[in-house]
Structures are given as C-alpha cells and as structure tokens.
Amino acid sequence: MSGFDNFNTDFYQSSYSVDDQNQQAGYDYTNTQDPYKQPYGQYDYSQQVSYGAPGMVPQQPYTGQIFQPTPTFTPSPTQSMYSSSFDDEPPLLEELGINFDHIWQKTLTVLHPMKAADGSIMNETDLAGPMVFCLAFGATLLLTGKIQFGYVYGISAIGCLGMYCLLNLMSMTGVSFGCVASVLGYCLLPMILLASFGVLFSLQGMMGIVITAAIIGWCSLSASKIFISALAMDGQQLLVAYPCGLLYGVFALISVF
C-alpha cells in the first residue's frame, strides 16, 4: 500500500494548488452582476445592445403594452364606415329609369291627340310602359282566342327598326332606337281598345272597318305628333304619320282577322 501511495503522489506532478484559485486576476465573477439572474421585472431592458449588420438602422424599443396594440387610425364620431348611407341612395325605380309621373303624362298625350307633347319627356328612353302595353295587347287578343304574342313582338321590333332608320334620315338631330321604341309602344294604347272591341263584337263588318280606320288614324297621329315635337321636325307630321299608319295597320289586321 505504501508503494501505491507513492505512485499516486508522484504521478502527474504539477505546481497547481487549491490556494491559487483565489489569486487568479481578471477571472473573478463575484463582483459582477449576472443580468440573467435578476428577479422578474427588474431586468434593465435599456442596457440591451442590438447586434446587426453594419449600416442597418437600429430599431426603436417597443413602448406599448402587451395585448393592447397602438391604434394607427382613430375614426371621428361623425365619420361613417361607409361613404354614403342608404338614406342618400335614390329609389330603385329611379335607378331603373321608371318614372310613373312621366309614364302617366305620356299616356295622356297619346289618349289626347290634340294635346301638345312635351319634347323633353318624350325624348326619354322609357320601355316600361311600351312593354306593359304590348303585353296587354297580346292578352286582349288572347281573350278572342288568338295567340299572337310572337307576332306582336316581332312586328314591333321590325317596325321600330324601320322607323329608326327613317327618322335618322329625315331629322337633323337624330334619334336613338330606345326613343323610337318608347314612342311607338306608347302609341299602341288605342290598339288595345280595338282588340277590346273585338272581344265584344266582330270587327269584320262595316262598323268594325270604321272603328279600325279611326284607331289607326289615332295611333298614327299621336306617334307623329310626339316625333315632330321631340325631334323639332316642324311641318313634317304627315310624312312621319304615313309610315306610322302602315305599322299600326298591321296590328289592326291582327286584331280584325
């Protein structure tokens, strides 16, 4: 055993001793504070040093509160989330171009052929009234056993196209296709009366011929009056009434036969 002790003390001999640990200068950490051992809430964040690439601008520390982000935009109490409210919007019928006052005025103008037409109203593209009158004309023919809806709409389209070309050649200002269709559709109203007479009695006699001729003249006079008023075609009413009479004569033939 004494030999083993001698071997243990003689093996790897060095001049290091335990007393030298307190004499090592520059390696004593007892006087410095470990920033990571500070209690919670006492860590000084202002001493942090940001490490980044050279030339980059250091970011500013966050000064807000957790779970309470700083608002970037604060709307005023009078400012609404929408640019306009529903109260400021126009009515749906006005957006669709349906004006019952103008429809009533156009209907009265057709029913009263001698009444002066308002050119500003008649120049509007209003197809609500003409569609109703065409549907009413076809429904009245249906009461007499005539299913002629296809003929009514087909002849209306061809007649509107022909009058559109003719009026653009005769007038200086020109006219739109919608305006022509609107006027011809409104002037179809007397033809509904003729179809209603056909429900009550036959129109193939002498009295039927007289009523049919009067209705055709009524429709042609109303349509030509509106056209010359809207297009400023003074002195050309007879020239416009002739093609209108031919168009409404076809509708009269559908009603009679």
Describe it for me?
By secondary structure, this protein is mostly helical. Helix content is about 50%, strand content about 0%. The protein is built from 10 helices and no strands. The chain has helices spanning about 1-10, 90-95, 100-110, 120, 130-145, 150-170, 175-185, 190-200, 205-230, 235-255. α5 crosses α7, α8 (about 190-200) runs parallel beside α10 (about 235-255) and α9 packs antiparallel against α10. Mean pLDDT is about 75; it is low at about 20-30 and about 50.
Layout of secondary structure:
Elements: H1 2-10, H2 92-95, H3 100-111, H4 119-122, H5 128-143, H6 149-170, H7 177-186, H8 189-200, H9 206-230, H10 237-256
Helix pairs in contact: 5-7, 5-8, 6-7, 6-10, 8-9, 8-10, 9-10
